[in-house]
Amino acid sequence: MPRRLFEVGVHAVARLLPAASPSALGKVVRSGVGRRRLQSLVMALTTFATVTTAMLSLGLLTAVQAPFEHAFGARNGAHLAIQFSSSKVTAAQAAATAHAAGVTEAAGPYPIAAALDTTIGTDCAERAGSDNGPITVSTRPDLGSTSGMDQLALTRGHWPTGPGEIALPSQDFAADCFGDSVVFSSLPGKPSFKVVGFADSVTNSATGFLTADGFARLTAAGAKSDEQMLYRFAKAGTNADIATDKQAVAAAVPAGAVESGQSYLIAEQQATGNAKAYVPFLIGFGILGLFMSVLIISIVVSGAVASGIRRIGILKSLGFTPAQVARAYTAQAMIPATLGLVLGTVFGNLLAVPILGGATQQLGAAGAASATIPLWVSAVVPLGTLLIVGVTALIPALRAGRMPTVRALVVGRAPKAGGGQRAQRLASRLPLPRAMSLGLAQPFARPARTVLVGAAVLFGVVSVTFAVGLETGFNRYLDASTSGFNVASEFVEPTADVGVPWGRYGPNDPRDPHLDADKVAAALAEIEGTKAAFGWGDSGATMVGAPPGGETPEVFTTTGDFSWTGMELLSGRWYSAPGEAVVGDKLASAVGIHVGDDLTVVQQNKQLPLKVVGINFDTNVGDYTVMTDAATFTAAGLTPHIDQFNVELASNVNGAEWSTSAAAALTPLNASVQPNSDGGKNIVVLTMGALVATLTLMMMAVAALGVLSTVVQDTRERAHDLGIFKALGMTPKQTIAMVLTSVSLTGLVAGLIGVPLGVAVEKATLTPMGNAIGRHLPPSVTHTYTAGLLIPLLAGGIVIALLGALLPAGWAARTRTATALRTE
C-alpha cells in the first residue's frame, strides 16, 4: 500500500511540473559528459580512428584516381596503343584495323621508332654525354591539336616547328638542360635535336615528338619506322578486356604484325600505384574501426542508461520529457564523438599529403592541381560517421526516454537477481580458488553485456592479427627488395666507374667500362675468404614488343651462381642454357608474357630470340627486366656487358682485410672493390608499416578501453556484493583475481574466433595491394603466419581483456568494505 501511494504521488508531481528548459537540458548533458570522462575518451578515440582510416582510404582512392581520370577524359586518351611492324603491314592495313571488333574510335597510323638510345648533348656542360635512356619517338600531323584522340599536353616551351627540334616528357630529360640537345647515340651519325618543349601523352603512347621532317631525319639515319594505331573500345575496364581487344586487332592483320601494345591501365597503375597500395589495408582498418565505433558507443550509452536508471527517473519527475531524456543521452555520446571526428578529419588530411605528393607528381600537369584529399571527402566521411554514431546512440537513448518514471525511481540501478546462479554452482565445483571461480561465473550473470565485451575484444584481436600479418609481409617485402643484385658483402666494379655517378653512360656507350668477366671470376675464386660470387650487367639490349611508352625494359646478363642472393621465382624455373630467359613479374603482367613464350631482344641492331622459362619476383634495377645467361649473348656473337660482381664473404672474414688482399689481384684487371652500403629502404613500405602500427595501437587501445568501460560499470553495480565478499574475508589480491578472471574466458573465446578472422582479412588485403603496384607477391610475402606467430596471437584476446580490466580490478581492491556495503 505505501508503494502504491508513492507511485500515485510521483505521477501527480510529474504532471504538475513543466517541461525542462533547454538550459537545464544542456546542464544535464554537460554533467553527464563530465562524469563519464573515461567513456567520453573511449568514444572520441574510436571515432578518431574510424574517421582517420576512412578519410585516408576514400580520400587516397579519389584523389589519386581523379587526376588521371580527368586527364584521360579531357585528353580523350587511348585505351590501347599498338605498334605494327612496317615489314609486315602497310599503313593502309594498319588503318583498316579501326574496324576491328569492339573498336569505337581509332586514330593513326602514326610513324613510330621505338627504344632509341639517347645521350645529353655537349651543349649542356654539366651533363654532356650522360646517358638519357631509350626514347620512343613519333610524329603526328598536328602535335598541339586539342581535338581527336590522345591529345598531347605541353607543359613547358613550345612544340617542334622544324626538323631539328623535339619535345620530350619532363621526366625523360634533365630540366637544367632544357633548350639544349638530345643525341640519338645508337644511330649512325648520331643525329641531335634541340629540346624545345616538355610534353607528354596521358597514356605514354610515345616519349618523344618530332615534326614529319624531323622524323625523316631519324629514319634517314637508320631508325626503323613502324606504324602506331590508337584505339578506344566499347569494353576496356579490365586487363582481360584489353587483352581481348588486342586479340581482335591482331586478328585483322597478318600474323606477327603486332609488335607491342600499351594499355592505359598500365599507365594508370604507374601513375597511381604507390598511393593506391595504401587503400586496401586502410579500408580493412576503416571497416574494423566503424564496427568498433558502433559497438563501443552502444556499450557506453547502454551502460550509461543501465547505471543511471534512478537518475532518469529523477529527470522525468523534474519535468524532462521522454524526447529530452533521449536527446540528453544521445548528446552525451555525440559531443566526444564530434571531437574525434574533427581530429580524425584533420589527421587524415595531414597524413594524406606526403602519400599523395609522390603519386600526383607522376601525373605531371594532370596531377599538379591537387595533392590533398578532395573537400567533398572531408565533408562526407565525418558527416556519414556522425550519422552512424547518432543512430547508434539514439537506440539505447530512446529506451531511456520511454522508461516509466515510477519504474525508474523504484528500480533504481539495482541489478536483476538470480542471474548466473547455475554457472556459479558449476564454477564452485572446479579445483580453483573461490575468487577465481566467482570470476569465471560472472559473465553468465549478464550474457548480453558479456557478448558486447567479447565483441570489443574480438575486433581488437582481428585488428592485431591483421596488423601482425601485414607488418610481417611488409618486412619480408623489404627483405625481398634487397635480394638479387642488391645482395653482396662487397662489390667489384670497373676502376673507371669508381666515383662516376651511376648511369652516367649508357650500356652501349663506348665510354661505359666493363669487366673481363672470366678473368675477374677466376681471380675472385683464388682470393682467400671468397665464399661465392656472380657477375651481372645491363646488356644494352632492348626488347621487341615492349610497351612503346613509359619505362623501357632492361635486359640483364649474368655469369656464375646467384642462388645465394635470395631471388624468388613465381613460376617456371631459372635459365640453365643459352637462349633461355627469366622475365620480371611487372614486365610479364604489363606485356602479357607467360612461361613458354618466345621474346626477342635487340642489341646493336641484331635480333636475339629468347625462350621464357620463368617469371621471377623482380627486385633488380628497374621495374621491367629480362635476365639471361651471358653465354646467350656470346653464343650469338654479341657482348654481354658484365659491369659488376657481387661477392659473398665467408662468415669469419673481415671485409676490409679481404678488400686489401683482393686489390692486388683485381687492380691489373682494371677492377676495384667497393663496400656494400646496403642502399636505401623503400619509403612507401616503411610508411605503410608505421601507419599500420599506429592504427593497430589505436584499435587495441579502443578495444581495451571498451572492456575497461564495461568492467567499471559492472564493478560499480556490484559494489555491494564486493563489500559482502570483503566482509567475509576476501583480500585485495583475491578481489583483483576475481575481476580479472571475469573477463579471461571472454577474452579467450574472442581470441580463438578473432585470429582466423584476422588471417582472412590479411589474405584478402595483400593481393589487392600487390595488384595496385603491378606486382604478383611471392609466397614469402603472402604466407606470413607461422605457428610462432599464431600461438601468441591466440592469447591476444586474453591480453586485451586483462589490460582493460586491470584498472577497475585495482579500484575494486582498494574500495573500503564499509563504503562498498553502504552502496545500493
From TrEMBL:
It is found in: Cell membrane. The keyword Transmembrane helix applies. This is ABC transporter permease. One of its GO terms (molecular function) is transmembrane transporter activity. InterPro entries: ABC3_permease_C (IPR003838), Macrolide_Exporter_MacB (IPR050250). Residues 284-404, 695-809 form the ABC3 transporter permease C-terminal domain. It comes from Actinospica durhamensis. Its main location: membrane. The keyword Transmembrane applies. Belongs to the ABC-4 integral membrane protein family. Keywords: Cell membrane, Membrane, Transmembrane, Transmembrane helix. GO terms for cellular component: plasma membrane. The chain crosses the membrane at residues 40-61, 278-306, 337-356, 376-398, 451-470, 683-708, 736-759, 785-807. It is a multi-pass membrane protein. It holds the Pfam family FtsX.
